[in-house]
Every structure is written in C-alpha cells, then in structure tokens.
Amino acid sequence: MPSMAPGVDFNVIAREWRCKWSSDFDMYSLLACQSLLDDLKDEMLGIVHGWNKDMSRSHQCFNGAIDTSRSGIQRIIDGENKDFKVVIKLPADIYSQWAADGHPPEQRFLEGLHQIHGVSQVETQTYTLETVNLWADGGKIKVPSAKNGCMADKLPKLE
After folding, report:
1. CB–CB of 73/87 below 8 Å?
2. Which of 36, 69, 103, 112 is the most exposed place for a label (fewest CB within 10 A)?
3. pTM of the entire structure?
4. In which domain of life is the source organism classified (predicted)?
5. How many domains does the chain have?
C-alpha cells in the first residue's frame, strides 16, 4: 500500500474536474454541465467499473463485483459557491494506468466546460481518497455490545 508518510497510507486516488457555474439564464450553465457529464457517462463507467452500456440489459448478477469503496464517480454541486465537481476514484494501480493514458475523457470534458457560456475556473486536482473507519482497531472492527448499547433496555431479560 502506498504511503505519503508513516501511518498515512492510501490505496485509492481520485481525480477531480471542477468549474464554477452561473445562475444566469435559469442556471443554463449548470444544466449544460450536467448534460456534458451525462454524455460521457458510459465511457466514464467503463473506466471505474469496466462497464459498457450493453451491460444494462444483462441478466448477470453484479452483486459483490463492484467495490464502490475503491472506485466510483461522484458529482458534487455547491449551490452557494456555484461549484460543479466530478470526482473519479480508482484503486492506485488502476489510477496510475489511467493517468498514463491522459485521464480520458478528461480533455473532452474540460474542453466542453470551456465552451459553456457562464462557466469559469475550469480546473483539475488529484488527491488520495480513503474511507476512514473510526471503529477499526488494528484491522478489527469494534462493535458495541448490544447489552451495553442504546437499546439495552429493549432486549429481553433472561432469568
């Protein structure tokens, strides 16, 4: 597992694409940003899950086949600061190959954002993204005992 410093390990890397949008013209720029993201959805799902649009018609069960804690796509919209963000997270080894390939379809997405009237500050950023398990202690999950928990008075009493 890669480490930035002792005890600061990571195995997931995220790439963020972001811009500012305007509320002018009934939020035209926000709607156009979402439309651009929708247009690239299938290609982006292929990157994070090996997905293609034909799989949506499949009868194959994907339970357990997709680990959303390590790979996925999130869209973040901040209405107050007018931020539109897309975060693509991947396991570090898969991310390295995606980065070597130039983060496709990043260039098309960023060029598309630049073409939208009302969009500004188009930027990218790369960072690690880890799920923090506050219950874990040495790799083991600590779960409070039911007899001492918040529902202790609801448990049947054994005599």
Report:
1. yes
2. 69
3. 0.79
4. Eukaryota
5. 1
